[in-house]
Specification:
alpha+beta, eight-stranded mixed β-sheet, five-stranded mixed β-sheet, 19 helices, 21 strands, about 15% strand, globular
Length: about 750
Amino acid sequence: MADPSSYRPRPGEIPDTPGVYRFRDEHRRVIYVGKAKSLRQRLSSYFQDLANLHPRTRSMVTTASSVEWTVVSTEVEALQLEYTWIKEFDPRFNVKYRDDKSYPYLAVTMNEEIPRVQVMRGAKKKGVRYFGPYGHAWAIRDTVDLLLRVFPVRTCSAGVYKNAARTGRPCLLGYIDKCSAPCVGRISPEDHRDLAEEFCDFMGGRTGTYVRRLEQQMTIAAEDMEYERAARLRDDIGALRKAMEKSAVVLADATDADLVAVAEDELEAAVQIFHVRGGRIRGQRGWVTDKVEAVTTGDLVEHALQQLYGEEAGDAVPREVLVTALPEPLEPVQDWLAERRGSHTSLRVPQRGDKKALMETVTRNAQQALVLHKTKRASDLTTRSRALEEIAEALGLDSAPLRIECYDISHLQGEDVVASMVVFEDGLQRKSEYRRFEIKGFEGQDDVRSMHEVIFRRFRRYLAEKERTGEWAEGAVGGEVTASVTEEDGRPRRFAYPPQLVVVDGGRPQVAAARRALDELGIDDVAVCGLAKRLEEVWLPDEEDPLVLPRSSEGLYLLQRVRDEAHRFAITYQRGKRAKRLRSGPLDAVTGLGETRKQALLKHFGSVKRLRAATIEQIQEVPGIGRKTAETVAAALAAAVPGGPAVNTATGEILDDTPPPPAPRPAPAPRSAPEVTELPEHEPTAPGGGTPQTAPAAPAGAVPRHEPPAGHPAEEHDAGRDDHPGGDDQGVSEDAAGKARDGGPEGSPDGKDERRGQHA
């Protein structure tokens, strides 16, 4: 626990102006971001007697080890910068509402030449009109199906559209008049865009205009005795009214407003938002968050507005925002909303009438969402806490291991040896912290040595990060960090945070290797254990016998989940690496040649063989290939000349375009020669009545047939496991560090220490 007085700024250093401040922990992570009208007054409130602070504030200031600030001109700029930093640094002590990207929207792709109506999830794209969010995707499809009678806008995918344009035949919706079929020219792109604009206007709330227009057209058709057309218009009006009935009228016509309600207790808060457009409820969404900082209801509303409108602009921000409590101060938030919209936005608490009644409904929804969330989470929190406590008790740890890292080795008969590192925090997966390793310190199969290398590399990187941040810098005064703050951006660094527990997939040898690697680095505050296969024994360093946890133990179940996830991650990486190696060709070794230019070369020449036979001038004829690249390609292909034709060993098929010519047969020897160099059609009798023992030569180009020995299939191997379940890789990163060098960084063929990626 840090003493706030050790990093308290000196008197007079803090400016008395608006700004945004950041608290960092000992690892230089940003743990809290806040804004203030006066930085001096706000920051001074944190450095007082700890007994007078709120428990959550006290926990934050004792976790932090430094504070820094940025001065801005206005409170509106402070609000915007605070939101940007919270999204960027993901500080642990800030209120963060769970992202709602899983909510489906009705989207119209106005950024395409032929706009398309579809269901969309995820981040919003520029040039796309969104309506919603909706609670279920089927509700969107039902609404669209009704509106396509009146607004037959394209709904098909790009592949279906191109296929219809190529064949000259529309899809089924085009035949039943639920699509205007721009793919076959029934409607021009300009008229189809106008149709999409009308669809968007109707979904935006301008419903009465279109209903009245259709009623007038129906009346005129009936007067002209065009009864079939009048009947179709009658059915269209019925479809529009049925679609309008799906969203009840709650406020006066043409009212655009968002209603934000908050329900909270001591630990958590739930937010519900109703989107009202044209007086009708067009969408609903909700969030639940932990109250990790001391906040009021107004602060929760402010954070919700930041989450809701932080990346919106224009009409996405309504003219009126109704809330249960106003943020303090109100003016910066209201000015920020007006800046996002581009015109005035009203932010207030409804006091009477229909809006107050609707706000009460939204508040009840928030209260029910909080109760439902706590009901679902109670057993989960209890189970995870009990599992961590059981692990700590069984392993003799001082406290529950809040961060657990598990390592696993995977290979295929000693080839493509890789390792995985998965991270669980508070008993939950932390996929952004996953890492993958490629074993390059030695060749062949040695699970124990591989485990030692991986643990050594991972924690050597951790020590290097500590040294880089200045935690070990000589001349530090009073234990303060002397590293330059400008070199740090607050983002989580690779391998920067140590775990409380390291779990290896394996038994006593793997555990001993992991412990030895930590001892060599001088790390003695990280516990190590191993989970062996089959009997699920837990092995500890320097212990002769394993620890057997009860089968019903929640701690054992958590260790199994961690181990299985490490195994899945390792074997997925190993399979992908092996598949990439098997698919590689001679062009892959050409430096600076990307996939697009590879395909261009192969398309131009037809095969690698013809490309190898081409001159540098001929290679330059390919678009995008210059003289230098052509020379590099020619040199790489010349150095990779194959020794013979490529052959499919399973079928015996020669895969090259044209096999090399067969070797010339030697000329027959003269009859007077005493030795036979070629067998005649009828075998002669050898002297003494025997048969010559000369074996016939194998035909040129023949491939010997090799059968694998029985009982030895090529199986994938994973240290410490008999079974090998696969799995997809989601949102992960990779450490491809190569052979270790004494005192130097870990290198890799592409010059990168690790690669980071984000599935899913």
